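Re-run with default settings, no changes from the original entry. Doing this only to confirm the output is reproducible before filing.
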Amino acid sequence: MISIILMMILLGAVTLIFMRTTDTVTTSEARTTVYTNARYALEVMEADVKGTLSFTSGRQRFILDNGQVGTPGNDPTYNNGANDHVGIAADRMIFRTTTTVADTLQTVEIEYCLIPASKCLTAPGGVLPGTNTAAGDPSKKQTIGLNTGAPRPLYTLVRRVRAENPNTGAFDAGPKDKSQVVVQDMELCNYIISFNVEYFANNGLYSNLQPSPCPLADPLGNGTGANDDKNLTPYRIPMIRITLVIVEDTMERQERAVQKTMWIPMG
């Protein structure tokens, strides 16, 4: 009888250890995947930023918008005067660059921004800011829970690419590879709670986008609006610093920040 009881205790202990080990491995794998995607996203972004040097005038369209996360399931808002940065930032970058598109090298216009985790991208098309976000299931507004306060929404970092339309000259066409197949936009990283952009200002310090030196309403940052004279000198930003705050899944776990500084050639 004693031996049977001891055997049951031993089996129970082994089972408990196995369950905890499995949970630890699963959590570690999930965390590793998200971190890898976050680092990959920043590497792709840096490669795009490094291609902003123009072959002709030296000036390129480069837009930075100050964004703030919305309520769960809703898109971020931009340039509304909110002073929210690393904690609940949802900034946006739009710029023209010469970069790799599938198996080609093209001059394209690219947008980096956040979309709600419950939504997805459809076929590329239309001018940027993006117009190809499909609404998801309203009941699946992904959030991370908190011990106190309201849940925070989760987002996906996306990369939209638009090629120049040969008929109009506008950058509103889906880019194509060598086989003339349309290249789809990318969802780079999931489980993001903040995407913050800072620029290196004239005073030698990093500054958040409040206000932005070159918002969508004034891409050249010279106060003359969106339809700038191409001969005007744009606001030049030498480098930017990107901060992604991520979690490994929808469970309430530790947040991690991934940061990268990127030099801009036209700066």
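The longest helix spans residues 2-49. The mean pLDDT is 81.
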